[in-house]
Amino acid sequence: MKGISRIIIRLFPFFVNIYYMNYAIIAAGDGSRLAKEGVESPKPLVEINGEKMIDRLIRIFSENNADTVYIIVNEYMKDVALHIRSTHYPVRVELVIETTPSSMHSFYELSKIIPDDKFCLTTVDTIFKESEFKEYISAFLSKNEALFAVTDYIEDESPLYVATDLRMKITGFLDNPRSDVKYISGGIYCLLPESKSVLEKAINSGQHRMRNYQRSLIENGVEIKAYPFSKIIDVDHTADIKAAEEFLQNK
Questions:
Q1: What is the CB neighbour count within 10 angstroms for residue 10?
Q2: Considering Cα of 211, then 241, then 250, then 50, what sign does the dihedral take?
Q3: CA distances from 43 to 186, 205, 240 (A)
Q4: Counting beta carbons within 10 angstroms of the beta carbon of residue 218, is it exposed (0 to 12), middle (13 to 18) or buried (19 or more)?
Q5: 77: which of 31, 42, 63, 176 is 20 to 30 A away, CA to CA?
Q6: DSSP-derived secondary structure letter, 85
């Protein structure tokens, strides 16, 4: 059925944004904090309620209009690359193996092969409720603007605070809290094609952090709306694994 749908979309390209989009996963970090706490598996293969984090994301994306999922892992993650290549996923997966100095550079490597259309980018350790994600993607597909996931659940070690106006337009990305700012970044970014040219400018100017790239989007006039999630958990420590499992089990 999906193959037939692809043929229809190729014949009638105005259906693309309604039915299919691309996803990208940054999974190139070394998971050093988890390793120091005794976790032997590379971070993408860490299980949450019996499901590897990388597999969970791919499954969720396949259930939310995915055409292709683009993934980057570093050259030392041989187990991760082998797992991805040997697993039969319900959606096409393109794997990039590249060691990069930062998540922003990982995104840049992925951006070279992501088609010029709407896409959604996440980090591999982002844990969220599937029902909220489905509503988020639906909202993004119905609009012609970038849409970033935010949450007022703040447990991250160095959160990126997100300032918004009354229309939920993002007006700034802040390193430090402010009394009038209630949200932090959730690490999930729905982007339009022009975001890639801004990324290239940021790379060429010597930027190294995703948060600086996000600031560059605003500086370059890209309008971004914030989309609130009830909670998003980043799995950086063993305690986060338990917290994520309990969060997902709590209906």
A1: 10
A2: positive
A3: 18, 30, 12
A4: middle
A5: 63
A6: H
Rounded percentage of the chain residues whose pLDDT exceeds 70: 92
Name the one residue in this structure whose structure tokens are 């009038």.
180
Please say whether the beta carbons of 43 and 29 come within 8 A.
yes
Q: Show the tokens assigned to 1.
A: 């059925």
Distance CA 60, CA 126 (A): 12
Phi-psi category of residue 168: left, alpha or beta, with phi > 0 → left and psi -120 to 50 → alpha: left
| Averaged pLDDT, 17-44 | 84
| pLDDT score for 96 | 97
Cβ count within 10 A of residue 187? 25
| Dihedral Cα 87, 89, 94, 95, nearest 10 deg | -30
Domain ranges of the chain: 2-249
Helices 103-111 and 194-204 pack at an angle, to 10 degrees, of: 130
Name the residue with tokens 């070690």: 157
Q: pLDDT value at position 7?
A: 46
| Homologous superfamily in CATH for domain 2-249 | Spore Coat Polysaccharide Biosynthesis Protein SpsA; Chain A (3.90.550.10)
Say how many CA atoms lie within 13 Å of 3 toward its Cβ.
Answer: 0
3-state secondary structure of 199: helix
Say which DSSP state 75 is in.
T
CA distance 11 to 237: 48
Looking up tokens 């709306």, which residue turns up? 225
